[in-house]
Amino acid sequence: MSEDRVWAEGLLIFYEIFKYLEEALDRLSHTLISDLDIPGMRRKEAFEKDLAFYLGSNWKDGYKPRESVCQYLKHLEKIEQENPYYLMSYIYHLYMGLLSGGQILRRKKVLLQKFSFSRKDSVEGMAVTEIDTSVSRLKREMTEAMNRIAEELDEETKQRLLDESKMVFILNNSIVHSVEGAGSVVAMKILKFASYGVLSALLFVYIKRMLVG
After folding, report:
1. Which residues contact 86 (CB under 8 A, 6 or more apart)?
2. Which of 24, 114, 151, 176 is the most buried (most CB within 10 A)?
3. Which helix (H) or strand (E) holds 15?
């Protein structure tokens, strides 16, 4: 948050992941997975707005995702081909993490700029954390959607969702560590942006109970 270059790199690596997931939601709009596409949730355009702010309007010119991001995307492509429902682990964790951690980081950014915080205020370079509706409502609806879908899945698919939930954190960690200049403290802050609050064992237990119970 205190170094724009590092923050922009963090946005860049996660942009590719969120972009893939939102395109997958379009491809899978005819399936139960579409229940996870909560109105107001999508962040692709907000990522692009922030990246244009930090890197310039032509930031896509000559841009290629780094190797760690490509490996992440290959994994998403693989599991989508195997069973599209496995992508739900990534959709759930990444968006729930952004909705929670993004609001906290937004407040910190405002404090750094010495402004008073308001959910409706615009903060330059933080469009990805600007939610035009109730964050608590989005999180509640996403959880309810996950519960509904889980009721329709077999036990093997539920178990695989748990396995992929672990993989979310492994892959997030791999791309965060590719950010140049991000020391251990800064890297952890960026990681929290993508998966704030979902790294704890308590949430994993909750997800397991939700899917298996």
Report:
1. 79, 80, 157, 160, 161, 164
2. 176
3. helix 4-27
What pLDDT shows up at residue 2?
53
Averaged pLDDT in 10-residue chunks for the chain of 213 residues: 76 95 97 95 94 93 92 98 97 91 61 51 75 88 94 94 94 87 50 47 50 57
Determine how many CB atoms are found less than 10 A away from the CB of residue 81: 9
Residue 79: give the domain boundaries: 4-212
The confidence score (pLDDT) of residue 187 equals: 47
In Å, how far are 114, 140, 184, 200 from 76, measured between CA atoms? 40, 25, 26, 23
Q: Are 176 and 13 a contacting pair, CB within 8 Å?
A: yes
Q: How far apart are CA 105 and CA 143, in angstroms?
A: 22
Q: What's the pLDDT score for residue 120?
A: 45
Retrieve residue 96's tokens. Answer: 């729930």
CA atoms within 13 A on the CB side of 101: 19
Q: How far, in Å, CA of 112 to CA of 108, rounded?
A: 6
State the pLDDT at residue 199.
43
Model pTM?
0.79
Q: Cα 61–195–18 angle (5° rounding)?
A: 35
Domain CATH code at residue 183: 1.20.910.10
Domain count within the chain: 1
